[in-house]
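Write out the 3D structure for:
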Amino acid sequence: MKKPALGLLLLSLSPAGEAATLDLTTHWVGYLSLTIFIIAMLVVVVEEFTQLRKSKPVLLAAGLMWGLVAWAYGQHDLNHEAEAAFRASLLAYFEILMFMLVAIAYVNSLRQRGLFQWLEYKIGNRGVSYRRVYWSLGLLCFVVSPLADNLAAALFFGALLLAIVRKSPKTVALGSVHIVIAANAGGVFSAFGDITTLMVWREHLVTPQGPVDLLALSRLFLPALVSYLIPAWWISRALPDGNVRMPSEPAQCRKGTWVILFLFVVTVALAVATRQLLHLPAVLGMVTGMGFLMLYGYFLRMRESRRPITRSPFNVYHAIAGAEWNSLLFLYGVIACTGALAFVGYLPKFGQLIYQSPAGDTLANLGVGGLSAILDNIPVQALVIAMRPEMSMGQWLLAIFSTGIGGSLLSIGSAAGVGMMGLTAERYTFFRHLRWTPVILLGYLAGVGVHLVINSALF
């Protein structure tokens, strides 16, 4: 059976792959590539102060790193292997890109139709507090993520947050951190909710305690809930007092709003069904759903174009153009750079180091969580799968938990975090998320502790 397409990064991660690979970890190309990556990530970290968009350093770093790798492989007539590895990274990015573009197109279409403005008016008219909005959206995101997808859930509820409390920048920043934590925690115990969980589930792993199936994954629910509630409660203490401000003018949904919302739900369901029933990438279902939106948009635009009083007829391409490309290109840079480091040999060696150390699998899996925050959790999960360490079911569940929750430690550690940075522009940044990393780490460790206790029979 084919592995998930995002797991094609395994091509460059697997130490036992069929393709001929070189160990460049002690070569000057490897040292220089690692140095370039570190410098690029340091520049990303200080984006808030330099105002240099985070996509620029990682795009340049990705090009330089793969150029160096290709040159080194060319010296041994292995150009094809380098090309195949880069294409694997490119495909991994393309799937995420198309998934995010479809979700963003739907969110922006609903914004064009006035759904979020209408919700803002309704909530503001009822005098709802910032705290209630914070908890309502976060809990809903946690509940929806395992049923749909954590990235789609983060983008949808992030857009709701931005529309409802946009007049309170502090609430937007705190709520964004909250939604990222909720989305990643909600997706970790379901193969439908997180690509990193799906990658392990699709491997059909069999451990001495049984298979890592959907029932086994459900055992992570309570640890995930704990890892979400602890930082969510702590962050809520910093929320400003007061209620959502009532808009100056009443707002109404324009024609087609509820049809588009229904199509969005259908699209997410298609993505889940495509992944689970047809064993094809979820992005196929998302892009098919995009076709539904575009077809409906055609008839909606034709109808509105005949009415002179219509301010702006529906245009789905305007919705797509509203994507925040700085974050989307940043994601490409991170995936490409990580793929280069894997192909050079650093990530496989790191995996061997931690999983073969005397510290044991538990500390190794905890380390995987920390690595997920820096390198993005998808390639890190691919690394763990490629290593295929001989672990108990409890340890495999811990590895899944660590990569999923560990991605919340930094804003750049997961697609949900990167997507939220793009959605809320400068209101949710790396440093505004970093401020809460200690309490997110506390929740992560508490969740690990709960897992070790309630699932002790699985170790």
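The chain is about 70% helix and 0% strand.
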